[in-house]
Amino acid sequence: MCSQIENWRLFDACQNDPFLNLAIDEAVLRFVGEGKSPDSFRTWVNTRAVVIGRNQSPELEINLHACTKYGVAVARRLSGGGAVYHDYGNLNFSVYLRQTHRLARDGVVEMFRNTGEAVASSVGELGISAEFTVPNTILHRGKKFSGMAAAVKWGAMLVHGTLLVESNLDILREVLDVSGFPRENERRYVRSAKAEVVNLQTCSSKVTIGEMRESLRTGFERYFGIKLSEEKIIEEESSLAEELSEMKYRRPEWILRALSEQPRQPPVAGLSVTGLGSYDPK
Known about the structure:
This protein is an alpha+beta fold. It has helices at 18-33, 58-61, 64-70, 108-124, 169-175, 200-203, 209-224, 235-249, 252-255; strands at residues 6-10, 40-44, 49-52, 73-76, 84-86, 90-98, 131-133, 137-140, 143-153, 156-164, 226-230, 272-273, 277-278. The chain has a single domain (6-278), classed as 2-Layer Sandwich (BirA Bifunctional Protein, domain 2), CATH 3.30.930.10. 32% of the residues lie in helices and 23% in strands. Residues 267-282 have low confidence and may be disordered.
């Protein structure tokens, strides 16, 4: 007798707002953990933003002046890990599993490996060589195009990651360049691992966000032996995400909570970071 194929929900919240997308990650994670929503997968794209890990200092990871220059939002996610740059050329993916799920039971490190291999296989189907490297990175010929982070809370596991498809790497490098600023007390915070990066479109000019999204769908189905069925997020998930977006992810108290009393970056009058309003780092 053939075993029944496992079904996961596939959804697209059709949002490009980085704060709302991060809130959706938390809302769905909570509902999956409570058993109110099924194990799920989604892909998503943000407007320009730098997203730092839960335990990072924005001053140590982000050039705030460059963010102002290019209109790049500053956001903080639920999961750990390092800072990443998002724009319309960067495809993000999220996996939400009950903590009792067969894939989640082996822990985050093994889930990174499984997810990384699934992504590498999906990229390979587009004719681009890809290799997963521990703990959470995917490379093309030694250059990074994808990294992952995770959170295990509320009875569920979230693994999400990025895929550089046709991102603006010049802006990426500038907004993540803090080499000219003081680095005292940096051991208190998680620091991002620096790596040489590459766009997948550089590897194959035919690759688009849409093609990569579809390849991830079929690649995950093939690798995990599952069926991804398109469903909308339920109204309660959407309502919670809206609330979290306004009350948590957009608020300076969450985004800037690790700023030091002695600023590492010189203030600029009226420095404005998208989503924060006017902010002077002092």
